[in-house]
Each structure stands twice: as structure tokens, then as C-alpha cells.
Amino acid sequence: MSGPAAPDGPLRVLICDDNEMLRAALAEVVGAQPDLALAGSAADAEEAIRLATAEQPHVVVLDVRFPGGGPHTARQITRAVPGVRILVFSAYGDQATRSEMAAVGVADYLVKGTTNARLLAGIRALGAEARSATTSGDRAGGTPDGLRTPRE
């Protein structure tokens, strides 16, 4: 395993979704970007937490309806990985779900069906925050007001 991410190398991204085809597609999109590196992909909470702890990604892309629980997974990862930012990528965009995820430290929320460009922009923005948080010692993992702006 790789250990902590270098401060000036590619942004490390962990993909967490129970849909194998979606994980593969997201891995391909991330892997095609010279400034991003795939830190791994996980199909359930246990694997996601294990990989996040071992690989120390800058950004975790996480499905809400994830085996083992999206909120549980987000909470455990933000506790285990200093400065990590979590971007929820979900088919569910209702306010109750967004609020639940914001309460556990999720920094951004995109609804599946968004463009690759928008997803990559979200990953890059959160990756920049994660790098800044790591160098400043911030362990919180989220923005002060919870989610940035709702996106659909």
C-alpha cells in the first residue's frame, strides 16, 4: 500500500460504490486524468474504510446507499484519514439525505447523471482543500457549513 499522499503529486481518489460497472467507469475517468491517481475502489464499507486507512486518499467518492451504510462509512473514513474530503455521488438527491451526509462530514454532494467534467471539478476542488487541510493540520474533513452548494 502507498501510505500518505505526497503533497505535490497527483490527487489520490478512492471510489466507493457497490455497482461494479460504475466503479470501473469512475476508475477509468479518474485514471485518464494526469493530475489524479486512483487510490483504489471498494464495494462495501469494510473495504472502503480499510483502503482509506491504508491509502490515505485526498478525496473519497462515496455512494449513499452503500453496503455497510454511506453515513457510517463517511464517519469512519473522516476519523481515520486526516484532512480527507468526501464527495457523495448518489442517485438520491433529496434534502434529508443531503443533510444526513453533511452531518457526518461530507464536503460535497453530486447526483448521479452529472457530467464527467462536473464530477472531476468537484474532485479537484475537494482535493485542493484536502491538501490545504493536511498542511494546516485540519482534521475536520468537511466545510464549516456542511455541504457546499446542492448540485443536481
UniProtKB/TrEMBL annotation:
Matches recorded under SMART domains: REC (SM00448)
Keywords: DNA-binding, Phosphoprotein, Transcription, Transcription regulation
One Gene Ontology molecular-function label: DNA binding
The keyword rRNA-binding appears for this protein: no
PTM sites of type 4-aspartylphosphate: D63
Xref: InterPro entries: CheY-like_superfamily (IPR011006), NreC/VraR/RcsB-like_REC (IPR058245), Sig_transdc_resp-reg_receiver (IPR001789), WalR-like (IPR039420)
Limits of the Response regulatory domain: 12-127
Residues covered by region (Disordered): 131-152
PROSITE patterns for this protein: RESPONSE_REGULATORY (PS50110)
PANTHER family per the UniProt record, alphabetical: TRANSCRIPTIONAL REGULATORY PROTEIN NARL-RELATED, TWO-COMPONENT RESPONSE REGULATOR
Protein's name according to its UniProt entry: Two-component system, NarL family, response regulator LiaR
Organism: Actinacidiphila paucisporea
Source species taxonomy: Bacteria, Bacillati, Actinomycetota, Actinomycetes, Kitasatosporales
